[in-house]
Amino acid sequence: MIMVKTLSAFGTFGMVTALCAPFTYAQNNQSHSWNVDPTYLHRNITTATEEPSDITTSTCHYKPLVGVGDTENPPATTDGSILGSVSRYGEAVVDPSGSCASVQYPQEDQIYVVLDGSGSLTYADQDVPLKAEDFLYIPATVSHALKNNSAAPLDVMVMGFHTQGYPASPLPPKPLVDNIENVPIEHVNGHPDTTHYRLLLGPAGATRDRFDVGHVVTSLFVMEIDPGGTNHPHHHINAEEIYQVISGHGDMAAGSGSNGIEGRYPAQPGDVYFYRANATVGFYSAPGVQSRILCVRSWHPGMAPKKMAPH
Asked: How many separate domains does the chain show?
């Protein structure tokens, strides 16, 4: 079971200097004003509100955290100034004996990660069983719907990524689903020994992840960070990233880009951070506490390697 109970509420929106607010710079007695975009967004699953969506029914509930349906700060999530490749990131909860509406996206790949409970996913004409810590890749054009035939709620993180302009790929011959615990822990070169990785999904053509099929998504992984450890704050100049605290607690690193300014913010289970390309990203696990972080990284539009770039 992935534990997602929030231990304390902490804000709902992060910023470095100003959040889409006028910023004035004076030089040679001349003032110039422009809007400063945030380099990251902070959400919390517990404090987020349910919103109607294309998957919701009387027994299927959705909390948008980033992207489609997020009304907390519309200018930052609807005008394209912050989000690039990320279409949506939210939590779907299906009541016992409930189901979600079937959806199909012609230009959006999706990934589902089961936080808790059990159920199934109707994937085209197949029924795929799901249990806690299962992750599933749903390529664009495949119709799908969550179902819950159990006596407990089914809790799933829903991730969506724009594929418009990317070359179409043949659909997998069968649904790509596995369990996080089945993916071995390993060390990633260039990262501290205190952080251990389960590499779930990577880019098409790679060979290191459980499923290497992504076009927009370059990496889906879980970090397991030792007590007092860190993955070292860093930058991805061409990719956006989302971190979600699954268990444990510590400080989330979030801040500006290449100048290395780093903010540290207390983070508990349920906290979700979206980082725009080249933002400072990282996590420090508290002393005496092991932390698990669910992470997904995707190419920012126009910044994918040539072999994967949109046509």
From this structure: 1
